[in-house]
Design goal:
5 helices, alpha+beta
């Protein structure tokens, strides 16, 4: 390992140490959920995975007051966990992870999945919405909502 990579590692560890214990718990939870979601998407159709997520008990305090941190910070923690997860963090996996974490705190997000036609091909995109707007991803008007979790 060279000096530059050691410095980078040391800086990452310092940033990790500056997180609150609740934020570190969310980071670890999100990282583990990335693994489970990736496995679930390989084994099950997305609609079945969504249905399974709905049936899992939702322990924890209800509402935004029960969140360990602000919503923007929570989204950031999910993005960071995805960056360092051993699986590819797509918009769908990030959306599923964030939706699951929010649901565990009694918040009902909407995981939106939309499609758009670009020239001769279709593309898909997922984002998470709350009552007061988009929490994760972009709500692009080119993507027609195809599927959403309520």
């Amino acid at each position: 390992m060279n000096t530059r990579s050691l410095t980078s590692l040391a800086e990452r560890l310092r940033r990790l140490a500056r997180l609150t214990p609740a934020e570190r718990a969310v980071l670890v939870q999100a990282w583990g959920l990335f693994l489970l979601v990736a496995l679930g998407l390989r084994l099950l159709p997305p609609t079945r995975l969504l249905a399974l997520c709905e049936r899992v008990p939702q322990p924890g305090p209800a509402g935004a007051a029960g969140l360990p941190t602000r919503l923007e910070r929570l989204v950031w923690l999910v993005e960071i966990a995805g960056r360092y997860a051993p699986v590819r963090a797509t918009c769908l996996t990030q959306g599923l992870v964030l939706a699951r974490i929010l649901a565990s705190h009694g918040i009902r997000p909407r995981l939106m999945i939309g499609v758009a036609r670009h020239a001769e091909c279709l593309s898909a995109h997922a984002w998470v919405e709350l009552d007061d707007g988009v929490a994760l991803g972009l709500s692009d008007p080119r993507y027609a909502p195809l599927l959403w979790e309520r």
